[in-house]
Amino acid sequence: MCGAVCPVCKTAIVARQGEQIRHHFSHYPGTNCNAETALHVIARRLIQSRLADALALGQSMTITWKCVACRDRHNFNVLGNVGSIAVEKEFGSCRPDIALLDQTNQPVAFLEIVVSHRPERRVVQYCNRHSIPLLIFRIKDAESLESLQLYHNLNPTTVLFCLRNRCEKCGAPLFTKRLFIIASNCWRCGAPIKLALIEINGKIYGANYLSENDRQIARSRGVILRDQLNYHRNQPEIANACPNCGIITSNRYVAFQKKAIIKLPGINRGLTCLNCLHYVD
After folding, report:
1. What is the pLDDT of residues 51-65, one digit of tens each?
2. b or e along 200-210 (b: 16 or more beta carbons within 10 Å of the residue's beta carbon)?
3. Cβ 45 vs Cβ 37: under 8 Å
4. What is the spatial distance between Cα 59 and Cα 121, in angstroms, rounded to a whole number?
């Protein structure tokens, strides 16, 4: 007996130091203890200890992640406004594994350790409702535990948070919108034509994404806009039209005009939400 004790069930465990399997601890036969719970408890203690040490020393702890909402790469110092750390503290109907609190005991970020199940739904909903970053750490085995100690900064598996401004209607991220007016030729009669298009987050959209103010600007610069029926979606939309023959240039065609705007500055038209098309001119 080596004197080690399981952090979950508090019973004695034995050190296994064979030559074929990596060294590890295991319970004695007949002990009823859940391995998943052990991984969860140990991971939580390791993360809590890392955070507490950094907080006591006044150190920052920056995480970097690719946002699942806007696809940007974000950077965030999780200890930037933290005054204390709480374990399994209740917030309404949810109880995150670790909560980072500011000086007034308001949550700054939640951390969830996931072994086999998804993060608690109530925790995710609380974070979404209160715009709180949720850091998820997926722990599969002992190697995952060791990785928590290899790096100075924490490396969560997933971060559910977007640093962009959010839409007041649906909560989705907002993107900068630019209006472009490009010179082209009508595909039917060859007459000169001006096309209005919108660039949002690196993608090109046709006239149907123009707000009413965008349309006024486009028309003042010589763009002809007409209502049409989109037969693929069976719904009306706005499209560019030829001033000579009146034929419509489809929004699908306009969306491929990225090369035509590379060297153009465009007109900054504020922010927009790609989820509900709410405009902030």
Report:
1. 999 999 999 999 999
2. beeebbbbbbb
3. no
4. 31
Is 63 in contact with 153 (CB distance < 8 Å)?
A: yes
In this structure, what token pair is assigned to residue 241? Answer: 């039209």
Are the CB atoms for 247 and 186 separated by under 8 Å? yes
Per the structure, the complete domain to which residue 27 belongs is given by 1-33
The Cα 203–Cα 274 span in angstroms is 11
C-alpha to C-alpha distances, 59 to 28, 62, 159, 177, nearest whole angstrom: 41, 10, 21, 38
Kindly state whether residue 165 falls inside one of the protein's structural domains: no
> Residues 50, 149: one domain?
yes
User: What is the tens place of the pLDDT at every residue in 26-35?
Assistant: 554 656 666 6
**What DSSP element (H or E) covers 48?**
helix 35-56
Q: pTM of the entire structure? A: 0.73
**Domains contained in the chain, number:** 3
